[in-house]
Amino acid sequence: MDTEIKQRHPILKKYGWIAAAVIVIAAASVWAWKAASSSSYSADASGMTIGEVTRGSFNDYIRINGKVETGVIVQVSALETGIVETKWVEEGAIVNAGDIIITLRNPNLQQQILDSESQLAERQNMLRDTEIAMEKERLQIKQDLLAARTDLNRKRRAADQQSTLYKENLTSREEYLKAQEDCQLAQENLNLLVSRQRQDSIYRSVQVAMMRESLHNMQENFALVRQRADNLNIRASHSGQLGSLNAELGQNIASGQQIGQINILDNYKISVNIDEHYIDRVAPGLKGQAKRQGQEFGLTIRKVYPEVTDGHFRADLIIDGTLPEKIRVGQTYPIDLLLGEPSEAVMVPRGSFFQNTGGQWAYVLDGEGKTATRREIKIGRQNPQYYEVLEGLQPGERIITSSYSGFGDADKVIIDN
Questions:
Q1: Nearest to 58 by CA among 386, 394, 349
Q2: Cα 343 versus chain centre, distance
Q3: Which of 174, 222, 357, 401 shows its CA 20 to 30 Å from the CA of 192?
Q4: CB neighbours of residue 295 within 10 Å
Q5: Which of 270, 313, 266, 305 is closest to 288 using CA atoms?
Q6: Gap between the Cα atoms of 242 and 261, Å rounded
Q7: Per residue, what are the HEC states of the chain?
Q8: Per DSSP, what are the bridge partners of residue 115?
Q9: Euclidean distance between the first and final Cα of the chain, in Å?
Q10: Which residues are bridge partners to 87 per DSSP?
């Protein structure tokens, strides 16, 4: 069967070779532009560090330095105002509870003590004089009672005699009535003395009780004044190490003024400063590990302080288990603080290239290691040994991990062996 052969369009036939030429020229121009826009830099291999991209278990931790502090600090303050007269111990000394640290001098307080002693002695003398006077009066009333009872007995016998004689008409009525009246007067006088004795006894009891109470109050006040005098001796309230002492001879110390602190030596903590980048990942309960003089021991974060200062925040860790030997306040311990559980990840060794690129790109070597081409990457977590690679690199590839500061904006680095 015959097939119809169509003729080519006359325009394509005439100008087709021109279009092909234009395409070739455009492609060559693009290649030339790319070649001109790309740049390269030659570098000696001896001046760079190469790191291999690997896959493995990524340990999520940071390394920080911690300073040993006491877990309990007791402030030392003055209870009385005075001038420093004697310093019995110096900073760093071991003190026991009750030991005198500083003795103050206060002339006004000494004068108050003398005045209180004088007032107390005067009140004691007054009480003794009152008690003596009351005892004399009590004895006098008792003596008067004896005399009144004797007088009553005599006048009662006289009245009985006159009554008998009057019945027998042997005495006058006047003598009889006088004897009866004398007996009645003696009885009333005795009753009055008895009532007076009872009232005086109550009055004396109340008065003496009041005076004794007043004397007791003065004695307590005097004891307090003496206690104030003893407070001029600033003592250690707890046993421990005197950490600081801000007082010099002749210095005037105000009441309540802090002059030092005592570090309790059976309780320690380790204080650390952590970069604010990790503030959302650090919380109480996180574990850590420290090493000193070949000895390893565990740590646990006890407290995280929310304040950020100069790009860092503070946290306190406590030591798990047995305390390290020869631990001292002020010692520095390197600490590995665990931020999370180990996980499988693509990793690349740490290097100073991160400071130049921020982890956004890196120079990746070719298979022969002759050139390294710039490539966009993405870095995630990091620990003291590795960066976690999220995008842009595959296990087995190699990158330049040393500084890029001398490479400028080169897209390719030619490595000279």
A1: 386
A2: 38
A3: 174
A4: 10
A5: 270
A6: 6
A7: CCCCCCCCCHHHHHHHHHHHHHHHHHHHHHHHHHHHHCCEEEEEHHHCCEEECEEEEECCEEEEEEEEEECCEEEEECCCCEEEEEECCCCCCEECCCCEEEEEECHHHHHHHHHHHHHHHHHHHHHHHHHHHHHHHHHHHHHHHHHHHHHHHHHHHHHHHHHHHHHCCCCCHHHHHHHHHHHHHHHHHHHHHHHHHHHHHHHHHHHHHHHHHHHHHHHHHHHHHHHHHHCCEEECCCCEEEEEECCCCCCEECCCCEEEEEECCCCEEEEEEEEHHHCCCCCCCCEEEEEECCEEEEEEEEEEEEEEECCEEEEEEEECCCCCCCCCCCCEEEEEEECCCCEEEEEEECCCHHHHHCCCEEEEECCCCCEEEEEECEEEEECCCEEEEEECCCCCCEEECCCCCCCCCCCEEEEEC
A8: none
A9: 71
A10: 102
**Token pair recorded at residue 328:** 């001292």
Q: What is the pLDDT of residue 28?
A: 56
Amino acid type, 79: L
List of the chain residues with pLDDT < 70: 1-38
